[in-house]
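Hi V.,

You were right to ask for the full record rather than a summary. Here it is.
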Amino acid sequence: MKAIDTDPTFLRQLGETTAHAYDQAITHIEAEKKGVIPELMETLTENGPYGYTITPQVLPDGGVNLPVISTSEDIEGAYKMIRGASDLLAVNPLTEIRGTWYTFQDGISYGQRKGTDQRGANETLGLFPSATGKGITGELVWVRVPRSVLGGGDPPTGAPTDEMHLREQVFQQHDRFLQALLLADLDGVLGTIHDRAASAVRDYVEDTGTLTSLAGEEAHADYYRAFFDKFEVVSVEPLYRAAEDWYVFAEVRVTANVKRGSEAGRSVAFHTAEFHVPANDGRFIARIGHGTDLA
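Predicted structure:
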């Protein structure tokens, strides 16, 4: 008697593509631990565009800066700077989601400053997107900081303080973001994003294949206004979600109709994999991720 009759061919293909994406991420992490820059660069796909945010910054006013780099020359320079200053000793996952085109980890990164015996550990989010060939197409990271320092000022009176209800708040805020995206509700989208927020997410407005860097309310408003002008969103379906009190990660499938240009009327779909970090008032202040090609 059959109980769960999911197509075994589909399950095999799912397992194979997931294993491939995971292998690209782990190969890259192992190369980072060795610290040999030429070998590290070989863990990238042969050709870009790339999407990297490996030096996120929290500003004195509680805002965020997310520098985006997309060329192999800039990525090599960043690795020389980072691995020239410290050694990566180990990465031990606490949460791991293996997608068909990415690997996401919430883990503990252990490092040691070059030329010293000074060792340390940070809880770090890492997203490693990849394609069907060899190598990763991006490395997107965030190092955990106290939620209290993000956003500036004090949290609203009566805001939750215990971990359980903070996790609930983060999940529900993400729900509001997805619902506003579905309804093309610009004010609703902006209502989930902090005034000092920065985002590094795939650019579907210009369809560059890499990330767009958004900083502040006006930049986010311009991007989503253009997005809703270009697409009629038909459905927004979360596939995987994990919420903690300091981030939410989700893979989301978006289907839409193109509204303008030479492809007007075309039905398209894409997947995004993003993690959103809340400020002390619950709005998202750092938004980092990538996405699949329009198809």
